[in-house]
């Protein structure tokens, strides 16, 4: 109530004010914290975060960058002295059974409070309990209520159009001069020039920056230029609100240069579609619609790209000319899927990629105190140690140690190194994970350190050890937080006993890029197994399956028990679950699911996993336990079909069933006597396991014709017939070999 009266005295419109909290108490725009991402790409003068009932670190990271320079970010909190001891909604999500909410600590909020008290630019007002909030006018603050005034001296100075940019219009610029005149920094000029490369086919632009650097504005100016030239520009973002700045800049430029242009607005009066007199246009589509329409557009612009799933980003690569504008340092609260996973996909695509980074701030001054605070409070700019400090690390030089949360809280360097390693190495690490690392009772962190610096880190979660009632509830469709492996094995694979054994799941594991491929990740897993193996029944993991990751875990003793039948939104991959049993109880769980998986996987390949990457399928089968291989029980007729196709005039298409079983057994048992090439193995996966048509297989594997592809498949089965064939099969082989 007091805040409402204070806001009424400020020269800020209600449309420039947003309350992020559970209830609409201020008669302005109100967004619940889980939906705070709607503010990405937008600008507000005042953002209020009501943290009394809940504070989600992701939401805080998302809203900080939406506040304009000179604006206010207001946190409504309990008394700072007692806030770390209070538990809220986010804390409840950390209370993973068998732990209760009282087991959740307040280290994250304690650290947050310390940064609030320490950083410049932050006023702290602690209202007294007897303050009168019923008055129409805000009462003056009591002398002891204003704990810190937040004023800075000297105040940060924002660059003005009179001082920037200095670069001017590039001498060979193709875009109109008015577009470059609208740029406010040299960085923006360079970004706009990079967009000019999209005039050529097969080009891509990646524009990244921290908040407030003008990346969306540069993208909007470029979109307007292409539309003025007659191109159809398709714009997408997590929501239309995220593209507000982009459309505003495009609208301003088009209105200045094309008096006949037409603008269609949404219900809030913001441009959603711009049509130029030359026949060009800028239009917004939500990500799913944009993915299906991108090939028809001349230019595609994806704003706030890092907030979209990797699988969605991949679908946009079908566009001939495409730009991605995104925020770095984790403001999205959605992990680092763009940086960690999608950049590699883009590099492997047929596009010629131009990259630009914007560093100079526009929305607020360089060194803005609130940006500096947010980076520290949420570790948005956390980095692993610099390369020279760990360059000599080897498995013999490192020390294995527990990263105690209290120690992390007291040692900022250690915390930044460990969390920075997780951020840069994993696509799903987000601000919420910082709170989990410090407060979650079911999590443990272990690291290898070299001369005191973190070179490899693992985040571990205790799972299983669930009582009969909890297991029954999970079997009947209920969810038990923090028990990912038992949940999948119980609810999806219908094993009610799966939650009884106790286990440790490796949630994240990361090794410094300077010392990868030296065996440090394997050494860390070895030490984790030494520490926990005698106290739990299994070690496990789950991740977006790629050939390299599957190979790494297989080489460290883990075996595949399940592959999801849908792609993960964040990684764009099918998820694999792998297990390493450490007791007889764990071995029993492992054996029954390994056998079931080996039996069902070939059938899945022709159905829900028909688009699984062949190299992923190869590694999945290689990481299936040998003892789980399905015995071959072919009839003489089935062996005649297989041997006849391998050595004679028989055809695979007559009866694919036995071929599928034989290929599956080969991949699982991996006999030394059979030496198929990678191309031959991909052929087995694509045609035999996944049932892909001959023409597509021939094209993907670069055979000259379908006929050549058919002959190659027969030849690939020859060593399999030699290795596994019955007497009947070998007689057929010898017969045709003689002829």
UniProtKB/TrEMBL annotation:
InterPro entries in UniProt: Acyl_CoA_acyltransferase, GNAT_dom, P-loop_NTPase, TcmA/NAT10_helicase, TmcA/NAT10/Kre33, TmcA/NAT10_N, TmcA_C_sf, tRNA_acetyltr_TmcA
Domain of life from the UniProt record: Archaea
Residue ranges crossing the lipid bilayer per the database entry: none
GO process annotations (BP): rRNA acetylation involved in maturation of SSU-rRNA; tRNA acetylation; tRNA wobble cytosine modification
Catalysed reactions, semicolon-separated: a cytidine in mRNA + acetyl-CoA + ATP + H2O = an N(4)-acetylcytidine in mRNA + ADP + phosphate + CoA + H(+); a cytidine in RNA + acetyl-CoA + ATP + H2O = an N(4)-acetylcytidine in RNA + ADP + phosphate + CoA + H(+); a cytidine in tRNA + acetyl-CoA + ATP + H2O = an N(4)-acetylcytidine in tRNA + ADP + phosphate + CoA + H(+)
Residue ranges of every copy of the TmcA/NAT10 N-terminal domain listed in the record: 26-126
Segments for region (Disordered): 264-284
Signal sequence extent: none
Pfam families, alphabetized: GNAT_acetyltr_2, NAT10_TcmA_helicase, TmcA_N
GO molecular function: 18S rRNA cytidine N-acetyltransferase activity; ATP binding; tRNA binding; tRNA cytidine N4-acetyltransferase activity
Basic and acidic residues bias: start-end ranges: 265-275
Domain TcmA/NAT10 helicase: 206-381
PANTHER family: N-ACETYLTRANSFERASE 10, RNA CYTIDINE ACETYLTRANSFERASE
Protein name: tRNA(Met) cytidine acetyltransferase
Classification lineage: Archaea, Methanobacteriati, Methanobacteriota, Stenosarchaea group, Halobacteria
């Amino acid at each position: 109530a007091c805040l409402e009266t204070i806001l009424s005295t400020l020269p800020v419109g209600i449309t420039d004010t947003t309350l992020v909290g559970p209830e609409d108490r201020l008669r302005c725009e109100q967004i619940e914290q889980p939906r705070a991402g709607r503010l990405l790409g937008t600008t507000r003068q005042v953002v209020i975060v009501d943290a009394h009932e809940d504070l989600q670190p992701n939401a805080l990271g998302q809203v900080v960058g939406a506040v304009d320079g000179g604006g206010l970010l207001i946190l409504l909190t309990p008394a700072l002295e007692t806030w770390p001891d209070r538990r809220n909604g986010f804390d409840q999500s950390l209370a993973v059974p068998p732990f209760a909410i009282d087991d959740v600590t307040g280290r994250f909020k304690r650290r947050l409070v310390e940064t609030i008290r320490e950083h410049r630019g932050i006023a702290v007002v602690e209202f007294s309990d007897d303050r009168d909030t019923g008055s129409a006018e805000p009462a003056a603050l009591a002398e002891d209520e204003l704990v810190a005034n937040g004023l800075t001296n000297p105040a940060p100075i924002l660059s003005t159009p009179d001082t920037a940019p200095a670069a001017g219009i590039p001498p060979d610029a193709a875009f109109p001069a008015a577009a470059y005149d609208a740029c406010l920094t040299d960085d923006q000029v360079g970004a706009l020039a990079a967009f000019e490369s999209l005039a050529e086919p097969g080009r891509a632009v990646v524009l990244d920056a921290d908040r407030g650097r003008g990346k969306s504005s540069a993208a909007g100016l470029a979109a307007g230029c292409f539309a003025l030239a007659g191109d159809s520009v398709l714009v997408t973002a997590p929501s239309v609100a995220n593209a507000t700045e982009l459309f505003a800049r495009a609208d301003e430029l088009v209105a200045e240069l094309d008096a006949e242009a037409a603008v269609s607005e949404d219900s809030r009066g913001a441009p959603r579609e711009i049509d130029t007199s030359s026949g060009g246009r800028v239009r917004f589509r939500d990500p799913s619609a944009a993915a299906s329409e991108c090939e028809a557009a001349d230019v595609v612009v994806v704003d706030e790209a890092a907030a979209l799933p990797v699988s969605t980003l991949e679908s946009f690569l079908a566009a001939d000319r495409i730009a991605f504008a995104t925020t770095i340092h984790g403001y999205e609260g959605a992990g680092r899927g763009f940086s960690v996973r999608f950049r590699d996909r883009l590099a492997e695509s047929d596009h010629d990629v131009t990259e630009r980074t914007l560093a100079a701030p526009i929305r607020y001054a360089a060194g803005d105190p609130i940006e500096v605070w947010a980076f520290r409070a949420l570790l948005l700019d956390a980095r692993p140690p610099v390369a020279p400090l760990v360059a000599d690390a080897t498995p013999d030089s490192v020390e294995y140690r527990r990263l105690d949360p209290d120690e992390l809280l007291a040692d900022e360097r250690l915390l930044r190194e460990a969390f920075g390693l997780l951020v840069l190495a994993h696509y799903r690490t987000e601000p919420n994970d910082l709170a989990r690392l410090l407060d979650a009772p079911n999590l443990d962190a272990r690291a290898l350190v070299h001369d005191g610096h973190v070179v490899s880190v693992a985040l571990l979660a205790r799972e299983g050890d669930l009582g009969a009632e909890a297991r029954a509830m999970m079997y009947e469709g209920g969810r038990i937080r923090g028990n990912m492996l038992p949940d999948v094995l119980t609810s999806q694979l219908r094993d009610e006993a799966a939650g009884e054994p106790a286990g440790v799941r490796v949630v994240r594991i990361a090794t410094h890029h300077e010392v990868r491929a030296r065996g440090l990740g394997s050494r860390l897993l070895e030490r984790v197994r030494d520490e926990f193996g005698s106290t739990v029944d299994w070690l496990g993991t789950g991740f977006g399956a790629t050939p390299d990751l599957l190979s790494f875990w297989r080489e460290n003793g883990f075996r595949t028990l399940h592959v999801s039948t849908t792609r993960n939104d964040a990684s764009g991959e099918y998820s694999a679950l792998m297990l390493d049993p450490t007791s007889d109880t764990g071995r029993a769980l492992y054996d029954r699911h390994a056998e079931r998986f080996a039996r069902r996987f070939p059938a899945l390949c022709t159905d829900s996993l028909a688009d699984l990457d062949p190299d992923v399928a190869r590694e999945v089968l290689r990481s299936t336990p040998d003892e789980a291989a399905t015995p071959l029980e072919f009839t003489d007729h089935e062996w005649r079909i297989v041997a006849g196709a391998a050595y004679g005039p028989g055809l695979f298409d007559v009866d694919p069933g036995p071929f599928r079983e034989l290929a599956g057994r080969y991949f699982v048992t991996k006999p030394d006597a059979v030496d198929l090439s990678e191309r031959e193995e991909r052929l087995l996966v694509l045609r035999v396991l996944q049932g892909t048509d001959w023409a597509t297989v021939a094209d993907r594997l670069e055979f000259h014709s379908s006929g050549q592809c058919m002959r190659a498949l027969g030849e690939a089965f020859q060593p399999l017939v030699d290795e596994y064939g019955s007497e009947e099969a070998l007689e057929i082989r010898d017969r045709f070999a003689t002829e």
